[in-house]
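Run log, item B.
One chain of 429 residues. Sequence copied directly from the ordering sheet:
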Amino acid sequence: MAESIRVILPKKYDLVVGDTFQLFYRGVIEAPNPYVYSIVTICEKGKNFPRYFEYTPEEPGTHKLLLNIYDAARNLVGSGETTLQVVAAKAPKKTVNVLCIGDSLTQAGYWINEVNRRITAEGGAPCGHGFQNAVRFVGSHKTGEVANEAYGGWQWNSFLTNRPGAMWVEYPNNLSADNQHSIWKDVNGALWQLETLQIDYLKFNRYLDHDAPVPACGPLVHEKNAVNTDPIYFKSASLAGASPFYNEEKKDIDIAAYAKKNAIETIDVVYILLGCNGLMSQEAMTLSRPEYCKTVVETGKQLVSKIKEAFPDVQVKILGQPGHSMNGGMGANYGAELPFTDSYEILHYNKELDLAYQAWCMEDGWKDYVEFINLSGQFDCEYNMPASPKPVNTRSKTTEIVGTNGHHPTMEGYMQIADAVYRNLMGCL
């Protein structure tokens, strides 16, 4: 009996005339190594290459794409279908206000600034459209020319509460980026996970979501997974901020009050990229992956319904996970502990989350204004995750390229997230 391989494709992909679209097979085929199979893409447009399908549309239209997976005996072991929906770039009649909500993948604003450049600027590569008043990215967190609401280590429920989940310590930072997600113990014995590295500050999340108080002073002593293991001595620490949407008077989140406070007249489109920070929660460790993903969706519905309540005409876009390092980045950040040491399990979680998001966006009461966007198929996790040369063994001068970060892409990876959002936003405009 032939094995069964899941091909997890969205209902559609957005494409723009003149913009090259690539569908990376690693991101949509649920297999430890998809390349041991024969991957056959069938579409009236585009080209099929070993790792991806590619198409640069010349005119608007819709095209069916079928992806088949065969084993060595030519048994069909997996299949998926999607639609390529092509639009022409066009400036809107009025400025569209866009709010981006997320975690560390969004916080620095890399992909948001690139979306803004592609739409509003001229020149560059890919060439911008020069629609100068087309979009305005709003929020209280300014990054470059745009704003957002994104915070490292946050999950859906982080935006629903006034409980600060992290601490900042003032520290003359000399730590390299590959120390991210390492674990440190404070003077009271509580464990903290390093999330954000800035020039003079470090941000730590509560490891396994504990309730211990913030320590008055250092040191933080290395527990596991860091490259630089010297104690972190700091003179003071402070709680990170709670949800920017939370209204203390109402004891609930209040999107209308948030918008008024930040001089946001309206919110037309919301992009939400969340989900990669929940795997160490108690629920994720006790529930099956499909069951846990359902709880993620139920939490997401609470936030999205509040946004809809404040701005009835809003369009909400739920972004799937882009993908994780496939060549050692998970080990660099998380050591050899479950669930992160099992790279295929992380892929499985990302796929289950995609399926849960997509099912949510097709439900009655939600499908008219909530849309799922698959990122993993548009993201090259094999080449756009941080990596560096490393000796193939301790006795050899020969090197190989090994991942140095599990979740956070290179700048090229952030640009691919931008491309996916740009294509979707062009359809909205």
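Observations after the first pass:
- The chain has a mean pLDDT of 93.
- The chain has three domains: 6-87, 96-160+250-428, 166-239.
Flagged for discussion on Thursday.
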